[in-house]
Amino acid sequence: MKQPSTFLTATAAAVALSFQAGLATATDYFFSLTSGNSITDGQRLRLNNSIPIISPGATASPHNPSDHFSRIYVNESLPAATTLYVVPTNPHPPPVPGYYGLSGQEGVPDAYRLIQSYRPQDYAPGQFRYDQWDLKPSPAGTGEKVLLRYGSDPLGEWRWIAVREVSSQGGFEKWVPWWVKPTSANVANLTSWEYVVVDLELVLAKGPVNSLAPGGIQE
User: Fold this and answer.
1) Residue 212 domain flag
2) CB–CB of 2/10 below 8 Å?
């Protein structure tokens, strides 16, 4: 009974080593919101240790230095539809790759929350979508910004919104990205939420990871 477990552990370790080796020469990005309101516009997303929510989000100043920016590695040798990998900014990350994806666990039709996960296999089919990200060059054409979409959307029906959430402990406010297609099936949910329409970009990371620096980056 120990042999399969040993095999799986070795496989996970090999995947992790390969992934970490790729990060050494990779181009990294951060998530950044545009439009919305004064809190969301131009804000890079953080994983807030002070707020017990697994989604990256935008928060008002002042920021907790331990709330690190959500850092992304993109394998740019792949086609446009691709995977966004988590770049660990805290010591001792799990020994497997992490992914940024869209969660359908809230059960809202045609609405998915942006989250990160190291265990996509724990989700029911279709409840964690992470391998069909569509990266579109920013109209500015600088190469430092990429518009982020997911899957096929030939009619342009899907959009990004940022939903205001308040933690049950401490009352901390956070604006969390959701990828939604407004329909009659989710109109009741959308009208009950406080949200703003935004866009979500990837912006080039220009400093190395430093787990002790504010935001987890040496800038």
Assistant:
1) no
2) no
